[in-house]
Design goal:
Length: 463
Amino acid sequence: MSLTMQIPTAAGAGSPDARWFAHPALPLFSGPVYESRLGTDQTGGRQYLDQIRRTPGPFTDPDLITEETLAQFEKFKILGAGGLGCEILKNLAMSRFKNIHVIDMDTIDISNLNRQFLFRKSDVGKYKAEVAARFVQQRVQGVSITAHNNRIQDFDEDFYKQFQLVICGLDSIEARRWINAMLVSIAEDADESMGPDAIKPLIDGGTEGFKGQARVIFPSITSCIECQLDMHAPRAAVPLCTIASIPRQPEHCVEWAHVIAWDAEKPFPKLDKDDPEHVTWLYRKALARAQEFNIPGVTYSLTQGTIKNIIPAIASTNAIIAAACCNEAFKIATCSAQALGFENNYMMYSGNDSIYTYTFKHEKKNDCPVCGRQARPLEVKPSMTLQELVDSFAVRPEAQLKKPSLRAQNKTLYMQFPPGLEEQTRPNLVKSLADLGLEHGQQIVVTDPAFPLEFDFVLKFKA
Ligand SMILES: [Zn+2]
């Protein structure tokens, strides 16, 4: 099946297609197709949605609203995944997308029921994708939802090629980077026969407490998730010395109980963060330490949140972000209004202090390891050891690689896998970069098992 997506091809990247931009001459709510609307669709409440689809707005090309493009929308195949799944699935079905696939490997936990509204108590333990798909299919007529109880990484290029659009509400940055790299590689490797179908818009939504973002990526054309990685800088870890000597915040006391007291006293053989008895033990320890240093604020739920690194998911924030994502999907699929993408491509939302939203254009980066063409500069001291360099990849906001393996031209510096090679290259870890013969301006290649790609860096020595 080949559907023509109304988006420019990679070749037209510099001069985005006029179809995406304003037609100021066009008055709102007029157009040749408008008159025929009532004649063709009188199916209850749905006619209003059809009215939007059949009515060119100020930003749409009236020529696109033909019976053919309307029929294409009916065939539009869309993929959704992740934690915002309930909201996204409901919104897509209500927007009359007919062919939806959903991927989620998780099973339903009782703690999901407060916000993941497609699930009931009797569903606890069942697969989320399956239950959600069944619920929405029963409720919304004419929608077909295929559930995949998998990780997104379980599928290959051929699987992803079948969709016209991907919406992700994933809860891990790792999974986002993976799907991003996959869609960019499909766009870049596509041959002529795929045409504009090779560009599969990626709509990404994410929330953290009262904050969230929605962004649209045209793989290989606009700024991708890897370009924007520094927007998700890892949270700074509290130094162990602070935890061990002078705690200042209640979280420091919890970390002390978690990291130091637990190891010293071993109250249970192995820490289970879901076992209330274990959490209570940590809470009591943390509370005693907090009282010693006069620090207020240690509670049971703070203890639980700190050790599990939890930021509570808030149902309403999820609803706002999922709605924004699905509206963009609808606009892209129907051309009914200008979507995020070529100009503004990133919408951030913050409800922490009152309400604030800001939409801007995140620029594509030439040195992006996924969609760029250049190696990325890596500032290092020649005196640092290879071990220090390896460790630094986890915390560098632009890299965030937990298990990096490093190669220089013709030379393996350190490989995490396989075990034999790891053992062979381990002695390099204690050597300095200078001792390893690395030079200013030299290129190194970094790989990580979590990502199907190579990261090119060019060393920039500094004193
Ligand atoms: Zn990129």
